[in-house]
């Protein structure tokens, strides 16, 4: 697999052949004294720690510090995307989000794609993410995933150009957008001169777009809809983001105990009495939303919430049951969904995928475990997976036994050589692998801010970018056309 570096077109990494869209930044970087950049790095860490931009790590296996809050490392060398590349990505992301929403609606209504034999019926109806409680339920605008975090990777190819692939779709409670916004704020604080020199597309208006998207799905008759962010509480790994987004949108952050359902209507308890809630941006999983319908032992949700939802008196974003479309076993069928629902060819390719539930695919995977990445279909955070080239023989054999015991629970993909980007590490500047999570908002139209969250695998050679496994983040710059304005001239 050919290696692709975002900044340098030539090898070795230190070569002088800088890609055109990085040239101005690279010239600036070469003039910066090392001690100045180190001081800026320390300043960023101090501010992030003071503000409380942390990520709680729990559930990690054999890892010291599991359950503790950690600072997500921030790297001050941005990932830069030229305007033409972003335009292609944007069209492909909008196409994909539209098809996924059509699919979720179909699954809970006509099931045309199942009857057509394009997606196996048992894969959906026997899936733990399928929610029979949603069959026939009408949701505003037939939009189920108002917020999608779609993970994009770039891999090198034979002609030296990188090709973008969709790695996975996150449609339940996608996180990370607060880090995208805070990374931009930090870069503008540390290096304001860069934003005067580069026409960087803004991202600061994301909370406004999000609030507009949420208000757009309010029940009819709500002229000034009340929106709340529903959080599991301060012990959740992404609590900082929940509080941040509520504050940025100017809406209330609530827990399940703050809500009550009366006459199939959701109310929020306030110091002035009950106040009706029209839209809930929920950041808790389906299972914990309503103890009357899902887990009876849940103290995180609100009893009766599904009654109000079915009655059309409250909107829940993302909708209950969206997980059926971001299950990794369903991922291989998304290109077929685009063709089926939209009559179009996919603009963004999937990573080639073997479905271990199929006998021939399983046989191939078992014969090539040392070459492949094998993922648990319900896994997340980089856990429940095997990276064959980085695994020991004993780890491969242990995983082989697990895979053979439950082949339907896994998919496999080639080990992509994810693109790299220059990154500050202890030894200086070195290439580290990255991915990109743009955030796609679907309401009356499909919208997104330019860029997204770039995650970086800080360990040398690592392909795992997840924050829970030591990954960091970068600011993502989408360069506007020559006629565009620099974000440095806009409010941050």
Q: What features would you highlight for this structure?
A:
28% helix, Dna Ligase, domain 1, 492 residues, CP_ATPgrasp_2, 2 domains, 13 helices, Circularly permuted type 2 ATP-grasp protein, alpha+beta, UCP005522, five-stranded mixed β-sheet, 23 strands, disordered C terminus, ATP-dep_Glu-Cys_Ligase-2
Give an overview of the whole structure:
With 492 residues, this protein is α+β, with helices and mostly antiparallel strands. It folds into 2 domains: 20-219 and 314-351 and 416-481 and 483-487, no CATH class; 354-412, Dna Ligase, domain 1 (2-Layer Sandwich), CATH 3.30.1490.270. Helix content is 28%, strand content 23%. It has helices at residues 23-30, 34-51, 83-107, 112-115, 121-125, 177-190, 192-197, 206-216, 239-249, 305-310, 334-342, 359-367, 393-405; strands at 54-56, 69-71, 74-81, 147-156, 162-170, 227-230, 252-254, 259-262, 265-270, 273-276, 279-282, 315-317, 349-350, 354-355, 372-376, 385-387, 410-414, 420-425, 428-437, 439-442, 446-447, 453-456, 472-478. Strands 3-23-22-19-18 form a 5-stranded mixed β-sheet. Helix 3 packs across helix 11 (334-342). The protein is globular and about 65 Å long. The relative contact order is 0.18. The model is unreliable at 58-66 and 482-492 (pLDDT under 50).
């Amino acid at each position: 697999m050919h290696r692709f570096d975002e900044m340098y077109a030539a090898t070795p990494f230190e070569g002088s052949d800088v890609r055109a869209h990085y040239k101005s930044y690279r010239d600036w970087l070469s003039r910066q004294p090392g001690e100045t950049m180190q001081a800026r790095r320390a300043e960023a860490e101090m501010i992030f720690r003071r503000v409380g931009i942390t990520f709680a790590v729990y559930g990690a296996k054999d890892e010291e510090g599991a359950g503790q809050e950690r600072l997500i490392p921030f790297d001050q060398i941005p990932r830069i995307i030229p305007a033409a590349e972003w335009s292609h990505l944007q069209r492909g992301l909008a196409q994909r989000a539209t098809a996924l929403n059509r699919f979720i609606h179909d699954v809970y209504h006509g099931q045309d794609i199942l009857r057509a034999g394009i997606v196996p019926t048992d894969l959906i109806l026997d899936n733990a993410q399928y929610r029979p409680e949603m069959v026939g339920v009408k949701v505003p605008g037939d939009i189920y995933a108002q917020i999608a975090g779609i993970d994009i990777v770039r891999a090198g190819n034979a002609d030296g150009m990188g090709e973008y692939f969709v790695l996975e779709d996150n449609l339940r409670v996608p996180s990370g957008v607060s880090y995208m916004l805070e990374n931009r704020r930090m870069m503008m604080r540390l290096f304001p001169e860069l934003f005067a020199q580069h026409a960087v597309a803004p991202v600061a208006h994301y909370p406004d777009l999000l609030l507009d998207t949420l208000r757009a799905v309010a029940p009819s008759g709500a002229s000034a809809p009340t929106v709340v962010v529903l959080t599991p509480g301060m012990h959740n790994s992404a609590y900082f983001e929940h509080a941040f987004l509520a504050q940025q949108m100017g809406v209330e952050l609530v827990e399940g105990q703050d809500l009550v359902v009366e006459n199939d209507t959701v109310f929020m308890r306030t110091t002035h009495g009950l106040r009706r809630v029209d839209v809930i941006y929920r950041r808790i999983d389906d299972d914990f939303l309503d103890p009357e319908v899902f887990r009876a032992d849940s103290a995180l949700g609100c009893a009766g919430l599904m009654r109000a939802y079915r009655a059309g008196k409250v909107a829940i974003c993302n909708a209950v049951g969206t997980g059926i479309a971001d299950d990794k076993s369903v991922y291989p069928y998304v290109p077929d969904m685009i063709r089926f629902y939209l009559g179009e060819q996919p603009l963004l390719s999937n990573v080639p995928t073997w479905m271990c539930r199929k006998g021939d695919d399983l046989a191939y995977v078992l014969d090539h475990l040392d070459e492949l990445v094998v993922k648990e279909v319900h896994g997340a955070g980089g856990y429940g997976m095997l990276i064959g080239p980085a695994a020991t023989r004993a780890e491969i054999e242990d995983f082989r036994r697990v895979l053979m015991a439950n082949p339907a629970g896994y998919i496999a993909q080639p080990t992509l050589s994810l693109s790299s980007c220059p990154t500050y590490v202890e030894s200086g500047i070195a290439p580290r692998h990255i991915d990109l999570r743009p955030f796609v908002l679907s309401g009356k139209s499909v919208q997104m801010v330019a860029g997204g969250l770039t995650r970086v695998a800080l360990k040398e050679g690592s392909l795992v970018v997840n924050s829970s496994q030591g990954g960091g983040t970068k600011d993502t710059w989408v360069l506007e056309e020559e006629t565009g304005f620099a974000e440095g001239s806009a409010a941050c």
